Amino acid sequence: xxxxxxxxxxxxxxxxxxxxxxxxxxxxxxxxxxxxxxxxxxxxxxxxxxxxxxxxxxxxxxxxxxxxxxxxxxxxxxxxxxxxxxxxxxxxxxxxxxxxxxxxxxxxxxxxxxxxxxxxxxxxxxxxxxxxxxxxxxxxxxxxxxxxxxxxxxxxxxxxxxxxxxxxxxxxxxxxxxxxxxxxxxxxxxxxxxxxxxxxxxxxxxxxxxxxxxxxxxxxxxxxxxxxxxxxxxxxxxxxxxxxxxxxxxxxxxxxxxxxxxxxxxxxxxxxxxxxxxxxxxxxxxxxxxxxxxxxxxxxxxxxxxxxxxxxxxxxxxxxxxxxxxxxxxxxxxxxxxxxxxxxxxxxxxxxxxxxxxxxxxxxxxxxxxxxxxxxxxxxxxxxxxxxxxxxxxxxxxxxxxxxxxxxxxxxxxxxxxxxxxxxxxxxxxxxxxxxxxxxxxxxxxxxxxxxxxxx
Length: 456
Ligand SMILES: [Mn+2]
Prior knowledge:
Largest sheet: 6 strands, parallel
Helix content: 40-55%
CATH topology of the largest domain: inorganic pyrophosphatase (n-terminal core)
Number of helices: 16
Strand order of the largest sheet: 3-2-1-4-5-6
Shape: elongated
Bound molecules: manganese (II) ion
Distance between the termini: 61 Å
């Protein structure tokens, strides 16, 4: 968008040139020849002249419809606007107010308070400069290390994986010079799909392997989250609240953020890093997963990072990650589950019987929550000698984790979050407490236990 920015000196140029706003194609009108030289030398386009004379505007306008931003003393505003109107009667004009007094702009001119400018232009520019300095410190710290280890939590989630991949890019390293690692394994099928489809190598390491590295960075986690102890942590980047004081040489903790991937997206943007499609896809998925599609705990920073990586991401790859393939045989299981479903007071129960792998139970719990009027879905199935129960709810009812703990906590592991929870019970333990573990008995007892827990 071509626009005309009129100001006696280079104030507007300094304001706009660093705002990171690529859509503006500004022509600067200034009165000071030195300001013009400065702007032109740095690649800007500028004209000099008297802002109160129409001659300057005859040279500036091409169509007469270009929007004009004015930053002049209030006393000169009317004369300048009149000169512009003589050349371009229809040009939209926005005037920056130098004081906080609202109104007083010449007729048809939109006033823009300085606070808004500070908020939208200066603050982001200053924050970006701050982030850039921070990133430079991080890069300088790791520059001399031959091998850097990027650690994630035990069952790394998309936010951790994306953040680790982004940190590697920030450090300008490859997977040999900065492997991404965990002491645990990735269990959730979507997270496994993420590493497979985006070809991200996550190494499973033993604590003693830490010695093989010259430096250690941690993303989306803090040293206190681990059972293992770390002799020295060089960097911690995280958005969880600080459980125990974080001991690290460098740290960037932002508990207000919805995702660590947002922090890393800001890092990449601050240093104008090239963000590959693969990295953008990972970051987008990380932000989406941690903020539940921007619905939970997302801040303006998350929204901005989301919008940035959204434009660069591979959306068909993301779809494949989010919707794992369903094997043909799984449809028979689903058919069984649908036929045997049982709906009581907004709770959809379905016992699938024997399933090939536990993730099917979780996947169908998502599915059954879509039933009209359902506030809860409780789906169960047996696999490898265990009973898996996955619970979902619509979010505005009781916390799923609490109800599941109440219902099944005495039989095995049980718990979860606000809207999703699960229980895993060894069938051996079930028989010891409840006796019969036939599919019918399991289905019946799950309904009874869950209904009772929901009522208390
Ligand atoms: Mn996270």
